[in-house]
């Protein structure tokens, strides 16, 4: 399948993911392209990732992972990062999560909303986890909720009906792609900013973020003519 170029007819984007590091496995390369082009991108994290490091208690891991996420965002030109403080590892799909995300959509007023893979499986067939699935499905619904003045009245301000695109990265079957070759070093820097988390994984594959990201970006680029390195998205017109 040949991937299509990611649409460029938008000015403001909101990235909504479950955990610190979720966007950095490739998606942040696209963010670097967008901020270099002068687009406004902000991040919303549903949790602080406090349950993500087995050797560090949540009370310590939360602030540590928040700091790493802010550094990862700075590497790709993003200054505005918010956290909702839903509990890591047990994120529940439901009205509270939809309300919280819809409120930020109304306040930030994005035309593009980006989230992570919320399908049941990752590319290659590995099972996804509940936090990712619940967050992505809540993001999908919150894009609609934000535009309905009778849903969550008063949350976040006036209704916002101009979300034009929802995009998910890390998906099994992408439809669109962004050429990240010119900003690949910034994509690597954003993933490398999660030093404590990557070290705790104890995974030789993740010991070298550049090699890991390059292999995935080369695979996507095989479906995206003209690019040597690319990140894929499934695009859902709203």
Description:
By secondary structure, the chain is of the alpha/beta class. It has a single domain, classed as Rossmann fold. Helices cover 37% and strands 16% of the residues. It contains seven helices and eight strands. It has helices at residues 27-36, 58-75, 95-108, 130-145, 184-192, 195-201, 209-221, and strands spanning 4-5, 12-17, 40-45, 81-83, 112-116, 165-169, 176-179, 230-237. It has an eight-stranded mixed beta sheet, with helices on both faces. Helix 2 links the parallel strand 3 (40-45) and strand 4. Helix 3 (95-108) packs across helix 4 (130-145).
Task: Tell me the CATH superfamily.
Answer: LmbE-like
| CATH hierarchy: architecture | 3-Layer(aba) Sandwich
Counted by DSSP, the helix tally is 7
Reading off the top of the CATH hierarchy, the class is best stated as: Alpha Beta
Number of strands: 8
Q: Classify the secondary structure makeup into a structural class.
A: alpha/beta
In short:
With 238 residues, the chain is α/β, with parallel strands linked by helices. The chain has helices at 27-36, 58-75, 95-108, 130-145, 184-192, 195-201, 209-221; strands spanning 4-5, 12-17, 40-45, 81-83, 112-116, 165-169, 176-179, 230-237.
């Amino acid at each position: 399948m040949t991937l299509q170029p990611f649409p460029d007819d938008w000015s403001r984007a909101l990235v909504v993911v479950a955990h610190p590091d979720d966007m950095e496995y490739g998606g942040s390369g696209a963010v670097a392209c967008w901020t270099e082009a002068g687009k406004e991108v902000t991040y919303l994290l549903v949790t602080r990732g406090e349950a993500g490091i087995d050797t560090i208690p949540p009370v310590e891991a939360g602030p540590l992972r928040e700091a790493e996420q802010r550094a990862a965002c700075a590497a790709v030109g993003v200054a505005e990062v918010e956290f909702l403080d839903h509990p890591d590892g047990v994120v529940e799909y439901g009205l509270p999560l939809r309300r919280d995300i819809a409120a930020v959509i109304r306040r930030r007023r994005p035309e593009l909303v980006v989230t992570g893979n919320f399908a049941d499986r990752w590319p290659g067939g590995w099972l996804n986890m509940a936090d990712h699935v619940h967050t992505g499905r809540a993001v999908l619904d919150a894009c609609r909720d934000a535009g309905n003045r009778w849903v969550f009245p008063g949350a976040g301000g006036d209704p916002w009906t101009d979300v034009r695109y929802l995009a998910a990265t890390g998906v099994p079957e992408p439809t669109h792609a962004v050429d990240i070759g010119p900003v690949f070093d910034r994509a690597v820097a954003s993933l490398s900013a999660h030093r404590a988390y990557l070290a705790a994984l104890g995974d030789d594959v993740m010991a070298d973020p550049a090699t890991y990201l390059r292999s995935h970006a080369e695979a996507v680029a095989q479906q995206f003519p003209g690019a040597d390195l690319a990140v894929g998205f499934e695009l859902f017109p709203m």
